[in-house]
Amino acid sequence: NTVIDAHNVSKVYNRETVPVYAINNVHLHIEKGEFAALVGPSGSGKTTLLNLIGGLDKPDTGSVFINELDITKLSANKLIDFRLKNIGFVFQSFNLIPVLTAKENVELIMQLQGIEKSVRDVRVQQLFRQIEMSDKMDVRPAQLSGGQQQRVAVARALASRPKFVLADEPTANLDSKSAFNLLDIMTKLNKEEHITFLFSTHDQRVIERARRIITLVDGRIVSDTAAVSTRHEK
Ligand code: ADP
Ligand code: ADP
């Protein structure tokens, strides 16, 4: 059951002057239920690859299939709609909306999708139980620690029951205790709810917990602990 299939994907910046192959002919295949870390030095292309897979950016070559649909072929409007329904995003700087409570932040995507209030309420309660923050639903982000804000961001990413979650350096701004706690929650969601995670990190504490480690150097995948399911070509 393949959720992500990136084929021959490249992204070149500064094509007109000094071209930078941020992503250079990458093939990546992710199955439902994986817990995979994307690692590599700063500038190796991790953010670019996540943005291409998440449809936040378009590749110069290649295709990105999400559940067998090539998202590089979607119009801008269709892509926005597709992302909302199918992909959960977690960012390094949490990106919660400061004027909304934790609950309202999580509920917003469901409201945008026209999900009715009674259904939203049940889902929100469940998500806050899963992130172990049922007592903090009505608090604004500024009153939460970084670790708590990131857990709310994970709940928000899961609100619309996406096919998978992409997380760009989710622990980069967290102290060790909060980072472990976030990892525990992500691991539990992966094991118990079969949520698929693809996350970038250069945090050794996080890498140790991943089941699959995909290493990027200069825009190419140079190693993949699940190499049997990933071919890379020159
Ligand atoms: P990482 O996330 O691994 O740090 P990035 O994906 O951010 O790597 O960057 C990969 C390469 O692409 C780097 O050389 C970076 O400077 C370059 N790059 C990323 N975004 C842009 C951009 N918008 N314009 C030009 N170069 C970029
Ligand atoms: P990361 O935290 O992944 O290392 P960066 O700090 O490298 O991310 O990049 C942050 C933002 O700046 C990204 O949106 C990226 O696309 C953009 N960016 C990175 N490198 C360049 C560059 N050389 N020129 C223009 N934009 C860049």
What can you tell me about this protein's structure?
34% of the residues lie in helices and 26% in strands. The protein has 234 residues and is an alpha/beta fold. The strands form two sheets. Strands 6-7-8-3-9-10 form a six-stranded mixed β-sheet, with helices on both faces. The chain is globular. Bound molecules: adenosine-5'-diphosphate (ADP) (2 copies). The site of one adenosine-5'-diphosphate has 4 residues, from helix 1.
In short:
Residues 4-234 form the ABC transporter domain. The protein is an alpha/beta fold.
Strand content: 25-35%
pLDDT below 50 for ≥5 consecutive residues: which ranges? 228-234
Chemical compounds bound to the protein: adenosine-5'-diphosphate
**Main β-sheet, in a few words?**
6 strands, mixed
Question: What is the straight-line distance between the termini?
Answer: 27 Å
Mean pLDDT: 94
| Strand arrangement across the biggest beta sheet | 6-7-8-3-9-10
Shape: globular
Topology as a string of helices (H) and strands (E): EEEHEEHEHHHEHEHEE
- This entry's quaternary arrangement is single chain
Judged by helices, strands and strand pairing, the structural class is alpha/beta
Radius of gyration: 18 Å
Q: Estimate percent helicity.
A: 25-40%
Please, how many helices? 7
Number of strands: 10
Family: Belongs to the ABC transporter superfamily. Macrolide exporter (TC 3.A.1.122) family.
Pfam families: ABC_tran
GO molecular function: ATP binding; ATP hydrolysis activity; transmembrane transporter activity
Protein name: Putative ABC transport system ATP-binding protein
